[in-house]
Design brief:
The complex is a heterodimer. Chain A is mostly helical. Chain A contains 14 helices and 2 strands; from the N terminus they run αααααααββααααααα. In chain A, helix 7 packs across helix 11 and helix 12 packs across helix 13. The longest helix of chain A has 34 residues. Chain B has one domain: ABC transporter involved in vitamin B12 uptake, BtuC (Orthogonal Bundle). The chains are: A mainly alpha, B mainly alpha. Chains A and B meet through helix 6, helix 12 and helix 14 of A and helix 7, helix 13 and helix 15 of B.
Chain lengths: 336, 336
C-alpha cells in the first residue's frame, strides 16, 4: 500500500512539473501551447514513447535492456530492404515482419538472461554491439533514401485533422494514436492479467514469485520478447517519420529512454513502475528540450538539464522511500 | 588433478592461456606485420587507455555497481586542464605553459574528477540510489557540461611536456604503459593490502554482513567512486598526449569495452569477486584482438560485433565449465 501511494504522489508531482514547464514556456513563447506544436511534439516523440512501454516492462520485471535501439535499427534496415525487394509490400506487412523480427531478437536476449542466469546489463550490452556490428558489416553502413511511399503515408496519416490559417494541415497523427492505444493496452494488461501481475511479482522478489507458482522463464522471456516487438514497431515508425534509413540514427538514444522511464517512477531494482509514470517521464523530457528550443537557449544545454532532472528526481524519490521506511520501522516499535 | 585445477583457477590460468592463444593466432594470421616493432609499439601506446578505463570500471563493479560516468569524467578532466592552462597563460597561449602551471592544471583535473566521484559515491551511499541511475545521471550531466564548455569543438595545442605523459618514452618504453603499470601496482596494494580494499570485497560479497562487521559502508562507497574517478583522470592525461587534443566525447565507445574487459577478466558483475591481474590480462587480450583485426583490414564495426560475440561466448563457456565441474565434483569427494 505504501509503495502505491509513493507512485501516485510521484505521478502527481511529474504532472505538475509538466504543466508548470508548459505554462512557463508558453508565457515567454505563445507558440508553445498551440495545438500544432503539441501534436508535432507528440509525433516527434512517438518513437521514444513506444520504446518506453517496452522499457517499462523490462525494468518492472527487475531486468535491464540497452539493446532495444539496436533491435529497432537492425529491424528497420531489414524491413526496408525486404519491402524494396518485394513490389507488393504494404505497411501492415512491414509492421508484422518488424514485430516478428523484433520478437526473435528479443527472445535471444531473454533466453540468455534467463537460462544462463547472467546480469541483463552485460547480456544486452553484448547483444547490442553484436546486432549493431553485424548489421553495419553486412550493409557497409550504406544509407537508404528511396523508401517505399507507404511509409510516408503511414506517418502522415491523421486521426483528427485541422487546417492551419497558413494552409497547412495538422492534427493528431495516427502513429501517436497508436502509441496511446498501446499504452492503454499495456495499462490494462499490467493491472488485470495474470502475466502482467507476474511481471511485478518477479520484479519485486524472484524467490517469492517462484514459490507462489509463477513461471520465471515465461515471464522473463515474455518481457524481453515484448520489448523486441515494440522495438521493431518503433523502428518502422522511425523510418516512416525520418524517410530514410541511416544506420546510426537510433542507437545511442537508449539511455535517454531509460532515463524517461526511471523519471516516471520505475525502480531499476524491479517491482515498481506505471504506464502513466513512463508516459509523463517521456513527456517531461520532450517538453524540456522543446522549451529550450522555443526559449532560444542553446541546444548545448539540453543534456545538462536532462542530467540534472534525472539526478534530482531519483534523489527526491530515494529520500521519500527512506523516510517511509523509517516511519514503518517506528510503527513496528510502537506496537511492540 | 583437482589441486592442479584449483591452482590454475586461482591464478586466472585460463585467461593467460587465452592470451597466448590469441597472440599466436594473430601472429599466425598476420605474420611479420603483427610481430613488427611498429605494431608492438602501437599496441603498447593504445593499451593504457583501455587498461586504465577497465581498472576504473572494475573498481566500481567490485560491489556490484557500475560507473557509467567514467568516460564523461575523463573528458571533463581534460577540459579542466585546458581551462586552467588557458587561465594561467592567457587565451591561446596554452603551449607556453611552464611546469608549475602544468602541475597545477593536472591537480585541478584530479580535484574536479574526484569531486564527480565524490558526488557519485555520496548519492549512491547516502540515498541508496542504484549505481546505474546515479552514474547515468552524472554521465548525462557531465557530458552536457563538456559540450557547453567546448561548444562541441576539438581543442588542440597542449604543451609538449604535458603531451609527454601520453606519447613520451623512458629508455624506449612508452610513458603511458609505465603510468598504467604504476597505477595497477598502487591499486593492487590498495585492494589487497588495506582495510579499505578488504571492506570493498566484503561489501560486494554481502553488504549486510559487512555492515554488521562494523564496515562503514558510506565511507567505503565514497572512497570507491573517488578511486574509480582517479582512473578517469589518468586516462585523460594519456588521451591528451596521444591525440594532442580534447573533445567533449572522445572514447565514448570504450564504455562497453571497459565493462567487457572487467567481465572477461573475471569480475563478477554482482560484486565481491575479481582480481586486477585478470582485468590486466583481459585488456591485453582485447588489445591483441583489436590490433590483429585492424591489421587484417577488418571493418571497425566487425570489431564491435566481435566484442559482443566474445561476451556471449564467455557466458556459454562459463555455463559449460559449470556442467563439467558438476561432473567432476562427486569423484573428488569420494577421493577424500
Amino acid at each position: 500500500m505504501a509503495g502505491n501511494s509513493i507512485l501516485k504522489h510521484r505521478e502527481a508531482v511529474l504532472a505538475a512539473l509538466v504543466v508548470v514547464l508548459a505554462l512557463g514556456t508558453s508565457l515567454i513563447n505563445p507558440n508553445f501551447l498551440t495545438l500544432e506544436n503539441i501534436t508535432d511534439l507528440l509525433k516527434a516523440n512517438t518513437v521514444s514513447g513506444i520504446f518506453s512501454l517496452g522499457v517499462l516492462m523490462v525494468i518492472v520485471s527487475g531486468g535491464f535492456d540497452v539493446s532495444f535501439t539496436a533491435i529497432a535499427q537492425v529491424t528497420q534496415y531489414a524491413i526496408v530492404l525486404l519491402m524494396l525487394e518485394r513490389t507488393e509490400g504494404n505497411i501492415y506487412l512491414a509492421i508484422l515482419a518488424a514485430v516478428f523480427f523484433g520478437i526473435v531478437l528479443g527472445l535471444i536476449n531473454g533466453a540468455i538472461i534467463h537460462y544462463y542466469n547472467m546480469p541483463a546489463i552485460i547480456v544486452t550490452i553484448a547483444t547490442q554491439s553484436l546486432y549493431y556490428g553485424i548489421m553495419y558489416v553486412v550493409t557497409r553502413g550504406r544509407q537508404i533514401n528511396d523508401i517505399p511511399s507507404f511509409f510516408w503515408s503511414f506517418s502522415n496519416a491523421k486521426v483528427v485533422e485541422f487546417t492551419s490559417p497558413a494552409g497547412g494541415t495538422y492534427g493528431l497523427s495516427l502513429i501517436t494514436a497508436l502509441w496511446f492505444i498501446l499504452a492503454v493496452i499495456l495499462y490494462v494488461f499490467l493491472r488485470h492479467s495474470k502475466l502482467g501481475r507476474s511481471i511485478y511479482a518477479v520484479g519485486g522478489s524472484r524467490i517469492s514469485a517462484e514459490r507462489i507458482g509463477f513461471n520465471l522463464a515465461h515471464t522473463t522471456l515474455f518481457v524481453y520478447a515484448a520489448m523486441g516487438a515494440l522495438a521493431g514497431l518503433a523502428g518502422v515508425v522511425h523510418v516512416s517519420i525520418v524517410q530514410s534509413v541511416i544506420p546510426s540514427s537510433i542507437v545511442g538514444s537508449e539511455l535517454q529512454v531509460i532515463a524517461a522511464v526511471v523519471l516516471g517512477g520505475a525502480s531499476v531494482t524491479g517491482g515498481k513502475g506505471t504506464v502513466l509514470g513512463a508516459f509523463l517521464g517521456v513527456l517531461l523530457l520532450a517538453i524540456l528540450s522543446n522549451s529550450l528550443t522555443l526559449l532560444r537557449i542553446s541546444s548545448y544545454y539540453s543534456n545538462v538539464f536532462t542530467g540534472l532532472i534525472i539526478l534530482i528526481s531519483v534523489t527526491a524519490n530515494a529520500i521519500q522511500v527512506q523516510r517511509q521506511r523509517r516511519q514503518r520501522v517506528r510503527v513496528q516499535i510502537d506496537k511492540a | 588433478m583437482n589441486k592442479l585445477y584449483a591452482l590454475l583457477a586461482r591464478h586466472n590460468a585460463s585467461l593467460y592461456l587465452t592470451m597466448l592463444a590469441v597472440f599466436a593466432l594473430m601472429a599466425y594470421i598476420n605474420g611479420d606485420k603483427f610481430l613488427s616493432a611498429y605494431n608492438i609499439g602501437s599496441m603498447a601506446y593504445q593499451l593504457p587507455i583501455i587498461g586504465l578505463l577497465s581498472v576504473g570500471m572494475m573498481i566500481s563493479m567490485l560491489t556490484g555497481g557500475i560507473n557509467l560516468s567514467i568516460i564523461a569524467n575523463a573528458n571533463l578532466n581534460g577540459i579542466i586542464i585546458w581551462q586552467v592552462l588557458e587561465f594561467l597563460t592567457g587565451p591561446g597561449r596554452m603551449k607556453e605553459a611552464g611546469t608549475t602551471a602544468i602541475v597545477i592544471a593536472i591537480l585541478a583535473g584530479f580535484m574536479v574528477s574526484g569531486l564527480v566521484g565524490l558526488i557519485n559515491g555520496f548519492l549512491i551511499a547516502v540515498f541508496e540510489i542504484p549505481d546505474i541511475l546515479v552514474t547515468l545521471g552524472t554521465m548525462t550531466l557531465i557530458g552536457g557540461l563538456n559540450i557547453v564548455i567546448t561548444r562541441g569543438y576539438t581543442i588542440t595545442g597542449f604543451p609538449a611536456s604535458l603531451n609527454w605523459i601520453g606519447n613520451g618514452q623512458i629508455y624506449s618504453i612508452p610513458v603511458p604503459i609505465l603510468l598504467f603499470l604504476l597505477a595497477v601496482i598502487i591499486t593492487s596494494v590498495i585492494l589487497y593490502r588495506t582495510r579499505f580494499g578488504f571492506s570493498l570485497y566484503m561489501m560486494g560479497a554481502n553488504a549486510t554482513a559487512a555492515r554488521y562487521s562494523g564496515v562503514n559502508l558510506t565511507r567505503v562507497i565514497v572512497a570507491q567512486y573517488i578511486l574509480s574517478a582517479c582512473f578517469a583522470s589518468l586516462t585523460s592525461l594519456v588521451m591528451i598526449g596521444q591525440l594532442n587534443s580534447i573533445k567533449s566525447n572522445y572514447a565514448e565507445s570504450y564504455l562497453l569495452v571497459a565493462v567487457l574487459a572487467s567481465f572477461l577478466g573475471g569480475v563478477d558483475p554482482l560484486g565481491g569477486f575479481g582480481r586486477i591481474g585478470g582485468v590486466l590480462a583481459a585488456t591485453v587480450i582485447l588489445q591483441i584482438i583489436s590490433s590483429g583485426l585492424n591489421l587484417m583490414r577488418m571493418d571497425p564495426f566487425m570489431i564491435t560485433a566481435m566484442w559482443g560475440a566474445i561476451i556471449i561466448i564467455i557466458i556459454f563457456a562459463k555455463a559449460l565449465t559449470g556442467v563439467i565441474k558438476r561432473h567432476w565434483q562427486p569423484t573428488s569427494q569420494s577421493g577424500k
